[in-house]
Every structure is written in C-alpha cells, then in structure tokens.
Design goal:
The complex is a heterodimer of chains A (174) and B (199). Chain A is α/β, with parallel strands linked by helices and 174 residues long. Chain A is built from seven helices and six strands, in the order H-H-H-E-H-E-E-E-H-E-H-E-H. In chain A, helix 5 packs across helix 6. By secondary structure, chain B is an alpha/beta fold. Helices cover 44% and strands 15% of the residues of chain B. Chain B has eight helices and six strands, in the order ααββββαααααβαβ. The longest helix of chain B is centred in the first third of the chain and has 17 residues. Chain B is globular, with a radius of gyration of 24 Å. Classes of the chains: A alpha/beta (174), B alpha/beta (199). Chains A and B meet through helix 3, strand 1 and helix 6 of A and helix 2, strand 1, strand 2, helix 8 and strand 6 of B.
Chain lengths: 174, 199
Amino acid sequence: MLPELDDIQVEKVNQRESENKANKRAVNVDMNPMVDLAFLLLTFFMLATTFSKPQAMELLIPAKPKEELAEKEMAVKESKTVSLVLLASEVKWYRGITDPQAQSLPYGELEPLLAGLNENTEGLVVLIKPLESSSYGNLVDVLDALNYSDVQRYAISELSTFDLEMQLKKEVDE
Amino acid sequence: MPRLRSIKKLPKLDMNPMVDMAFLLVTFFMMTTTFKADMPAEIVIPFSKAELKIPDKDLCMITIDKDGRVFIGLDNKFDRKQMLAYVAQQNGLQLSVDDAERFSLLSSFGVPFEELSAFVTLEKTARKLYPQSGIPTDVENDQLRHWLIGSRLANPSLRFAINGDQETPVYAVKRVFDILQDLNITRFNLITDTEKDAS
C-alpha cells in the first residue's frame, strides 16, 4: 500500500514541477507571522510568571489554655527572663523584672546576644514587648533572631510600668 | 540562470528550529506559570533569613497593609464559594447565585459584611478603585473570625499565612495572632523576603 501511495505523490510532484515554477514556490509557507506570535506569547508568559516565590517563616504560637487551667499561670523564674522592648531603630533589653538595667542594641546585633544568653541560661524565656509605635518589620526582625539563636520559649507580652516609664523617658530625651 | 538562482536562495534561513524552540518555551511557560494575584494593597514585605517556601495550594493568605487594613484571600475558587456560603448563612447575608459566582473569582478582598454585596456587584475596573476598608477585627465586631472559620470548614487542610507590610503597626498583627490563637490555629507562616547581605 504505502509504496504505491508514495509513487502517486512523487508522480504528482513531478507533474507539477513540469507544469511551471510558480506552483513550486507556493509550497513555501511564510513562517514569520507564526514566529512573531510564538515570541509574543513567549514574552507574555515570561513577564507574567512568578518564579521567585516569597519565603515564609514558620511561627508556632501556644494553643489557647483550657478554661480550668487559665487561672494557673505558669511561673517563670525572674532571672531567666529577658525583655526586649522594640523601639524604632534599636532594642532595649534587660533581664529580670525587679530593678532592671536596660541596655540598647541595634536590631542587627540581637542574634549573637540572644544566642549567648540562651547558652548561659537554661530555660530562657524571651518577652517581646512591642510599643504602640512598633512596626511589624521590627517584630519580624526579632522573631528571626529568636529562630536563629535557638531560643525555645518566647512570647509577645504587654508592657510593664518600667517599660512605659522608659518609653516616656526616651520621648522626653528626644 | 542556475547561478542566479543559487544567489537568490542564499539569504533564506531555516526557521524551523527557531520556531520549535519558541513553541517549546511557550509550552513550558504556559504549563509552569502561576499568575501574580493582584493585591488589593501595596505590601512591602519584611526581610528575614527564613528559607521555607510557602505552600502552593491550600493557602489562606491574610494580608495586613500599613494602615492596618486586613484582607483575606484563598487560592481555590471552590473554597471561596464554600467559605462565603458559611459566612452568609451565619450572618444572614443576602447574596444571589450570580454574586456568589463573582465572589468566588476574587483572589483577595477586604470589605465588611455590610459592603460585601455592593462590592461584589461592581464591575472589575470599578472594583479595583473601590476603597476597601478592610475586614473588621475588633472585639465587638470580629468579622475576620467568621471568615477564618468559614475557610477552615471549606478546606480543613488549609494553611494560613500572614502577609504584613514592614510598616504595619504591631498591634494590628497581634490582634490577628490573637484571633488565630483563639481559633486554635497555632501554626502559621509569616511571609518574608530573603535578607539582602548588604543591609
């Protein structure tokens, strides 16, 4: 079957060729519009696609305590707490709650500090204290430092009177 | 005559390999592409060293812009529809079948219940210009909670991601954390950008 078909086609082509040359040229399809279209689509998809997906940071928060347990607050040794007060360009940090000595530190140097504290103190608890004016960016900086310094326990907590006083003092200074 | 013909033929290029390649690339991009979802608000995401990829599917994105407005977006059309069905039923919202269909095409939205039907019936271009006031999260009128419960019911394997702006006040984010905690959603992602080494 197949060879016969081929024969017919070849015959036809030969026939055409012998007829005139214009007919032979008509076989050439102009590919340019197709190429144009292909590249247009290619450009569109290349521009519309998102390759670099944003990264994500995983955050685990404690589950809501059951009602019968809500009364029982977990006691933490004062000496094991570190408070971080988030100011716009730096962090005020201090240990403990009674008579704290606050020190300032830029956000970039938080990680080595926390890593050091974490190594020296077993069961370190970090209290993150954002101010009214703190931004989410500051919080993410701190959470990032906590994640990378292996601190297991941290919480976002309310400001104490000491923190509020410190904030006021800071505002007066400025 | 034969010489002339050979000269005329010379500038003809064989385009076929190029076309092949072009279509191959087109096919590749068509298959792999995921379109950028249009964001209701401009978000500058904070930097971190985290290197986790956000999940491709089953994602509920909670966007908080720098004015503290909250938007919510699901990645799946059917989940959106189910979420709406739950929320509408719980809160007595009247939405037509057409409106529900239109709602299911929204990648993200941030309007309170009262404005929802008006917002959904808008034309696409008008909707973009509509000043969305964000989903209320205050204690007395906690609408975000309803949407979150609805989304969880629509898709139990949903994962939550918070997309906040660098400038977003911490208290707006803390409020969303509290709502999530209250709903026993204790594991979620914060969307960040890889830190630049220079900074």
